[in-house]
Design brief:
Number of strands: 0
Oligomer: single chain
Shape: globular
CATH class of the largest domain: Mainly Alpha
Structural class: mainly alpha
CATH topology of the largest domain: Serine Threonine Protein Phosphatase 5, Tetratricopeptide repeat
Strand content: under 5%
Number of helices: 11
Largest sheet: none
Number of domains: 2
Helix content: over 70%
Order of helices and strands: HHHHHHHHHHH
């Protein structure tokens, strides 16, 4: 459906929808190409808020899926520049999380995660709250506070799987952060336990 719409008229919404569909089909590179085209189309419209949201998504995906921090940092910088013109606290908070995903300083990651968490609780944004908790947990693990960090990772993913969220992307984000963090601290038992919880029942 989205591919037919994009073929008729390449609206940013059609390109975004096609990218989303390809993402969930596992066509990651094709999805990101569609999102990049959607970003350009939103900029041309212009629709800076939607362009910023697509930039945030691209930043997180380039970092999480390809480990390409240079490209991810570029997209988070574009998102930040757009967000600065809009004055929307929740959007600013998502930009902080995108920047945190490419940051090697765990103290800075924790500060950004805390800022995002505070904004999330004020706005009642559960997706933002759980993603911020997840990144705070990851940062704590990186400074040696493994138990405290793992507890936050568990809480964030439990909340995402427990139906508190609006977007399934939050499950992807919190589960990926948990898996990567647990691998870094060699907590493979936790990875296996959550892997069983995430696996579809047969």
């Amino acid at each position: 459906m989205f591919s037919e719409a994009a073929a008729i008229e390449e609206t940013p919404e059609a390109l975004l929808g096609l990218g989303n569909a390809r993402w969930w089909l596992g066509e990651i590179r094709e999805a990101m190409a569609c999102w990049e085209q959607a970003y350009a189309a939103f900029r041309k419209r212009p629709d800076p808020m939607q362009a910023a949201l697509v930039s945030i998504n691209l930043s997180i995906c380039y970092s999480g899926n390809f480990g390409n921090r240079a490209v991810a940092a570029g997209w988070s910088a574009r998102a930040a520049r757009l967000s600065d013109t809009l004055g929307i606290p929740a959007l600013d908070a998502w930009v902080l999380l995108a920047k945190a995903a490419t940051c090697d300083d765990p103290d800075q990651v924790r500060r950004w995660a805390d800022q995002a968490y505070d904004t999330a609780t004020e706005a009642g944004d559960r997706d933002l709250e759980l993603c911020a908790l997840s990144l705070r947990g990851s940062a704590l693990i990186d400074v040696g506070q493994v138990d405290a960090g793992a507890a936050l990772l568990d809480e964030a993913l439990a909340g995402a799987l427990g139906g508190e969220i609006e977007s399934l992307d939050t499950v992807v984000f919190t589960s990926c952060v948990l898996m990567q963090s647990c691998v870094r601290c060699a907590d493979f038992a936790r990875v296996l336990q959550w892997g069983r919880a995430l696996a579809p029942s047969t």
